[in-house]
Please model this.
Amino acid sequence: MALDIESTIDANSARITLSGELDGSSAPKLREAVDKVLSGKPAQLVLQVEKLTFMASAGLRILIFAKQKQPNLKVYLVKPRPSIVDTLHKTGFYDGVYVTDVEPAGA
Amino acid sequence: MDVLTLPGNLDALSPIRDYVKAAANAAGLDHTATYNLLLAVDEIATNVVVHGYEEAGLHGDISIAAKNDGNRLVIELSDRGKSYNPNLHKGPDAEGLSKELSDRPIGGLGIMLAKDGVDDLQYQSTELGNVHRFVINSLRPAEPVKPDPTLAVLEDHRKLEILLKISKSLGLEIRLDPLLQLIVSEVTDAMQAERTTLFLVDRRKPDQLVSRVAEGVGAKEIRVLFGFGIAGKTAQIRQTINIPDAYNDSRFNPLFDKTLGFRTRSILSMPIIDQAGVLIGVVQVLNKKHGVFTKQDEEFLEAICVQLDIALKRAEMVDLYLQSQIVTKSLELAREIQMGLVPKDFPALPEFKEVDIFATIIPTFEVGGDLYDFFPLDKDRICFIIGDVSDKGIPAALFMAMTRTAFKMSAIASPDAIGHTMGRVNQFLCESNPQQMFVTALAGILDLRTGQVEYADAGHEPPFIVQRSGTVVKVNKVGGIVLGFMPGQEFKSGTMQLDPGDTLVLYTDGVTEAMNVDHELFGAEAIETTLLRTGHPTNSEGVVNALLKEMGNFVGQAHQSDDITMLIIQYRGRSG
Model:
């Protein structure tokens, strides 16, 4: 299943909604989208992942990519599925992002 | 599963995951184990494509196969790219995992996730290529999904509501046939099935089941002997039979399906046994709409069967009562018809001033076998008969009607000697008498001009004559055998003389054999005594009333044991 990406940007917040499967083949597309939304130097990156059913390590690498590009960036993962939260725990990524069930307001 | 081979690029990842998902489902892995296996294979497949082929500048296929021996699931991922042993890769250490994301090295995470996702990750590299084996040990059938207690409560609630509904609607229907229809449709609904057949034990043949209604296929009657077919087996062993797949069960007879144009899949067949332990019938529910009938379904149907037993019992009682009501009504009609056969309007024959005739007939049951009749043959002669069929109730009533009609037609058609008329009636009755019944009778023709009576006797009680003086004379019988007994029998004619004021008293043995509580008979002597005491009666009706009163005193509280009939003819002579 392919990955669908929808991005919106406002003054402080970049939002990307993901649905489908994030793997090695779809990761480059997301990387491009993240690169694009971060060009405006938003304070936060909000990833809507409620409909993301699979995330390989390629997805984790994009999180690293985003933090490396903008170290003070706050990354939110909104409504991740339990299996993805599990992956975040195993890899220690859980502490580096904000996992939330409520979409944060623009900072 | 068949080997799946794909070109070794990133587009292969999605179909590979689909393949693994199917294999995991087939092996009964739960959601988490499936996801972890999926992630493991995906990570390695990504490495194979990226590092083994693309970065090495190589091209080739990637194949995946699944092997499941029931104990463990092995996914084999094969490629011909650059060798890349995940087990030699260190992966990130504890220090690396705790680093800030921005400080993390990219890479190594995938292999970590791959190793973490399976019980064993094996790697083998030969000249033929590389093989990764992902091993999941100790396969267990998927944990049965624990029923959600909330759902269980809801389900119990639904069943309780259905039971109440069934109990209510069955309670409203007291007629048997509509009740059977109602049961069938309610049970089909409640059990979420396609069809229900209700068999009842045949009352007349208690080793047979009969189905009066079969929903959906019209009102065909199905008969089943105990021990045959699923229903018959259920009745025989008096135990529930639950068959998930009828066509794989030797007890199932597909003939019914062929006859009824139906395809049976699952069957739940249950005996209906009443409180006293008597088998009432069998209820058979066919084709559960989703899945097969469970233990819960059996318990539910059992609860419904209790309601069925009660409703069926009550409806059968109502049915029997209604049937008896119908019989009673029919008997009342028969009585009316029978009484219409004998003249009941008194004073009778008002145009014949020479006679005063009165008669009464009191059957033991609604209808009886006694008869009397009188009718003019011409302006000078009146013909009469009194008779008693050798039985009581409906058979006697039918024979009585035949006798009366045969006599009247015969007498009117050829008004010759009364003995000849009796002979013709005897012949007719002998020819149509399968029940070997017979009639005693005494018939005569009174000549109104002379008072002379020509009579014939067929084994009947001898009549009395109360003379004008008050003297009582017992008529000497001419003798003759009963009617309907011996074909070709001849009957003699005798004569007796009535003088003006004389009264002829004819009766059946219901009068002489009237019994009191001590089983003593009223007897012919009592008739004679009564007639003597009464003396010369002013009219015929007075004779009947006097005899009935005397009989009543004698009999007391005892039940009437035979039909009682009296025919009284008072001859007054021809004036002028």
Q: What stands out?
A: Chain A has a mean pLDDT of 88.
